[in-house]
Amino acid sequence: MRNSLSAIRLGVELLARRGDRQQPDAVLEHIDHAADRAIERSEDLADLCRLATGKNLHIAAKPFSLHAAIRQAIDELAPAAPHATHTVFEHDRLGDGDCCGDAARIAQFLALAFEELASSGPPARVIVVSEVAGDRFRVAICESATPVERQGETRPDALLARTRRRALLQGIASAHQGHVEFDSARGDRPSIEGSFRSVRRGPPAGH
Phi, psi (5° rounding) for residue 179? Predict the structure, then answer.
């Protein structure tokens, strides 16, 4: 958040110094991006504080198409992925019908899962599975082949980022009466799988 806010301040200072209203687009784009990142991090912080007090995340539950939501999330995620031109995304769809839950939170789950997989190096190929089975649904993301051994990140900031991601992944699953598994189903390759249940409304505050 501090880095993003500093970038916003720098952008504003550059605009103020230049005084040229004909060429502000590149700086404004930089400010917008930094502001978006700051907002995302502030929302993450609010979520983490809520989880730390033993409460579930807020969700806005309503019927939605899981496959369509995941496809849209992939389309938005792929261009922004690290080394995007070298990462191929595949989407496998299983089952039919709508789910009931928070589509934005499910998209957030996918983004966090990819961020977690890419934390030790961008994968070349990623398979995303969305599955609907009655009142239950599943989202899994994994690398398509056994990777070359990667060194785990041990820097304090990297460990903190991993803790943040995993807490939010579990929080999103719990808010949908589900759970998340890391590498358990496919021990030969990195994977993250979230299992969810359709919910009719957000969990009561404080529960």
Answer: -155, 170
DSSP 24-64: -HHHHHHHHHHHHHHHHHHHHHHHHHHHHTTPPPP---EEE
Mean pLDDT is lowest, of 14-18, 150-154, 175-179, for 150-154
Smallest CA-to-CA distance from 173 within 80, 51, 81 is with 51
Buried b / exposed e over 123-146, threshold 16 CB at 10 Å, is beebbbbbbbeeebbbbbbbbeee
Task: State both tokens at 197.
Answer: 């249940």
**pLDDT at position 206 over 50:** no
Give the tokens for residue 159. Answer: 């460990």
Read off the amino acid at residue 5: L
Report how far residue 129's alpha carbon sits from residue 147's, in angstroms, rounded to the nearest whole number: 19
Q: What's the pTM?
A: 0.80
Angle between helices 156-175 and 103-117 (to 10 degrees): 150
3-state secondary structure labels for all residues of 153-189: CCCHHHHHHHHHHHHHHHHHHHHCCCEEEECCCCCCC
**Structure token digits, residue 11:** 């952008």
CB 67, CB 82: distance < 8 Å = no
CB 191 within 8 A of CB 185: yes
Under 8 Å between Cβ of 193 and 170:
no
64-105 tens-digit pLDDT: 999 999 999 999 888 776 555 677 899 999 999 999 999 999
